[in-house]
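Student: Please help interpret what follows.
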Amino acid sequence: MNLPNKIELANLPTPIHTMFYEGFEILIKRDDFTGTEWSGNKIRKLEYLAFDALNKKADVLLTCGGVQSNHARATACVAAKLGLRCILYLRGSEPKTVDGNLALSKLFGAEIKYVTAEEYDQIYSVAEKDIKKLSKQGLKSYFIHEGGSSEVGIWGYIEFVNELQKQLRKIKNKPSHIITAVGSGGTLAGLVLGKKLYNLKSKIIGVNVLKTSGDFEKIAVDLANKCSKKYKLGVKVNSKDFEILDGYSTEGYENITDEKVSLLTEISQETGIIFDPAYTGKAFYGMIDHFIYQANEFNKLMFIHTGGIFGVFAKMKQYISNSEFGLLDAENIVRS
C-alpha cells in the first residue's frame, strides 16, 4: 500500500475497556484517550492532515464546524503546537457564554468567524476570500474539510483498524459489531476501507448524528473510494459494507434529549465514562436502543468512544439535572 506520512501527535494505541449493561458485555475502544487538549477521533485524522499541510509549506490552517466543534478545537490546538495560525468558521452566532470547545479554541489563539447556515453550505467559497487575502500577505493556507474528512484525513481510521486488529488477537470472543457516531463521514469511511484492507470480520455500524442515512451512505462510499483510487489501494467500497442507524438525533446536532442524558449519567455514575451530547452520547444511546432494548441480533458489541468531553460543559446543567442531584443542586454546582 502507498501509505501517506503523518506527524505523531496522538497517544496510540488507545486502550480497550470493558463495561456491562443489562448483563451484556460491551467493549469500549477509548479513542477519547488520544490526548488531552486534542482528545478524541479528530487527532487521528489531523496527524495526516498536519503532515500534508507542513509538507505544502502552509502558514495557516483553516477549517469549519459547529460552535462546539471538537474538530475545530483539535485543529486550533494542533496549529498552536506547530506554530501555525488558525481560522475557524463556526456555524451559528456567537453565544453569550463561552465554554467547552469554543473556549478552548479561543484559548489556543484561533481566529473565530461565525457564519450563517447558508454561508456554511458554501464554506469553501467563504474561506477562499480569506485565503486570497492571506496570499497577498505572503501566507499560504491549508483548508481542512469539516471533521477532517478527506482522502488524506480518513487514513487516521484506516490505520485505526490495523491497530485494532493487533489488539483483537488477545481477545477470544471478538466483537460481532463495531459502532461509531457519524457526523461528517470520515471516521466511518476510514473504518470501512480499513475493514477491507486489514480483513476485519466485525460489522461496521454508524449512528447518524447529523444528516440522514442516505446522505452518509453516499458520503462514506464516495470518500472511501476516492481514497482507494488516490492511494492505489485496489479495493472498492459500497453501501452494503456498513449500516447506518437513523433517528437518534431528531433533536438537532448540538442538542440532546433528557431521555438520552438520563442513560448517559447512569453510565457515568456506574462506570466513570462520560459521553458528549453531540456525538458519542447519541451513538451510545442508539447502540443500546437498537441492539439491547429492541433485541436485534448480535454476539458482542464494541463502541468506539470518539471523545467530545469538552462538549459536555456546554450542557452541564442538563447533565447534572438528570442525575441523582436534582435541578436545584445542578444550578448550584454549575455556578460553583
Summary: The chain has twelve helices and ten strands. The first helix runs from residue 42 to 55.
